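User: For my dataset I need records formatted as: sequence, then structure tokens, nothing else. Please produce one.
Assistant:
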Amino acid sequence: MPNVDRNQSIKSCLCCFSKTETLNDRDDHRSCLLTVTADNWMFRIDMDTGKVLQRVFLSNSHRFRHVSWETQGHSVVLKSLLEKNRTRGIVCSFAVFDVFPLEFVSVIEVSRKVFGKDVCDAMVTDGLLVVSHTPGSVKIYSLPCLIRNNIVYKAYLGRRCKEFGGIVGEHPFGLPVNIEINECPPVLFKVTCGDNDLAVGGFPWQYIIQTIKNHNIFKVFTIESPHDVENGVLKYESSHIEPDRAIFHHDESGRIIHYSSTEFRVLKLIRTGHSNALRVLFRISFGTMFLKEPESLFTSLGRKIKRSSQLSNTHT
């Protein structure tokens, strides 16, 4: 790709591989690289040739900096920087697009007026709007319901929008905020956790939270049952410099990965009768390095010989 000025540098990108590319030779169904630049443009770039297939000016007021999948292979979401000006009451904004072809869906603003004065961050993923509150709680809302119930008009890329007063996605107009949320939508799920650290996955639906008192201890629950999961507390006995982590495996198998700087475990929730239990599938303990005591040897004349220290690996 050509060299560009700093204000045109890529801040975030996402590889979008089309499943229909072999069936449809149109440019809007080709695998592409979506990029978000520092000057608030989004580019759709051909993965094979590097040709710019489409460009969209995002906004003059929202600084979008991150692009990710909203629903894998179907739609993407752009997130803006967190707003520093608290007088506006906007925490951050999201722009949602369908892909193959690229179509604008909506721009959503997360405001403290609607979602609460203690809102500190938010994210959109897998059809959910996840809103974080201080000092440590997370609320989850349905994104499709939020869009369906609060959209004021539809807008299409490259077309003039009467309600917006400009051409959608063109400079200097950008994208319209076509979602107006006047009251807080219904909460699907609420949980208290340390550092707003919540992971949802598995089947039946499970979630992992970081405890508030100890950030190296995690707890696993099922959404369908309020009862504790057997062996659902994840922790390592020894303390480590690096923080421990517990996440769901990205292959959507429902397996949980719990790791520290010295150990790695893979676990899975097993249904036993009317209860659920967490079982360890396998574990790996990393080798530790330690210094041996120098060995002393003597010659036939009694002269002492010191050997250099050696490092040895011990695997458990």
